[in-house]
Amino acid sequence: MARRWFPSAAGSASPDGAGPDGLVKVSLTSLLALRRGGEQLNLPARRIASLRGGPYLSPLKGRGMEFDEVRPYQQGDDVRTIDWRVTARTGRAHTKQFREERERPVLLWLDLRPGMMFATRGAFKAVRAAQAAALAGWAAVARGDRLGGLIVAGESHLEQRPRRGTKPLLHFLSRIAGHAAWEEATQMDESAGKSALRQGLNRLVQVTQPGSLVFLLSDFDHLDDPACHAIGQLARHNEVVLGFIYDSLETELPPPGIYRFHDGRRSVSLDTGSAALRARHRERFVRRRASLERLAGLRGVRLLELPTHIDPFAGLRQMGGAGR
What we know:
Helix content: 25-40%
Low-confidence stretches: 1-6, 8-19, 47-53, 57-65
Shape: elongated
CATH superfamily of the largest domain: von Willebrand factor, type A domain
Strand content: 15-25%
Radius of gyration: 23 Å
Structural class: alpha/beta
CATH topology of the largest domain: Rossmann fold
Order of helices and strands: EHHHEEHEEHEEHHEHEHEEHEH
CATH class of the largest domain: Alpha Beta
Distance between the termini: 40 Å
Mean pLDDT: 83
């Protein structure tokens, strides 16, 4: 069964301002319209070291833009940083310490594999992933971050190196909206799905600069040990947000019965009367979520659940504050 199916009688409401295309695909106009919402978001702001100046504070002590503390003078300290007021008051030389301001690249890793073209409520998982990417992108641009991204749809992928400004985001959003994955009704078996996910993550590990904030926006279907290892590698020197996008049908099959699904051209029926089938279906999702929760236990990794029936803005609002 192709993964582009949705229920014949899905009683879900359309996202705000979205027509039919807003449920099964995105347009550049719809992604641009998310600017105001994105600018209201607080991105995770862990203080990490980088090699370039920018608006994020590094834990490295040295000459910089942000005052940190005063401590007793030590041999080798720059005499220009002596705090003469504290020195006069205590009778002992003290020096000022600063935390350097740092720049942070933000990378958006977007999953547009065939399995993402699916939903029974709300919008397709791929639509929610694209909306989340746009919101995070607008938030990054509003804070002066350098923005880059990688779109995975199969064995091939599109890359964009991090750059500062609105223009790179507009280019990336246009590549999302114009991607061929929205029109291709291809299928991908388990082996191909694992390979695409693994290759996309490995490539991200290769191109990500230490100190980056990385958004992984996916249903994480076919998540295996090599893919988890790649995410762990990313987390060693970066902040990683796992945007877990899923449909309610993936968590639990509907009550026993025969359900018809269609993709606008063909229809198929699903019999949910088998208790064994229902148990296997439920266990598959439980294992996937458990794998993501284990990854979220790593330092620098956080998990955000973004179900298809909820506006991703609501989930992304949970990001504010320091990392784990």
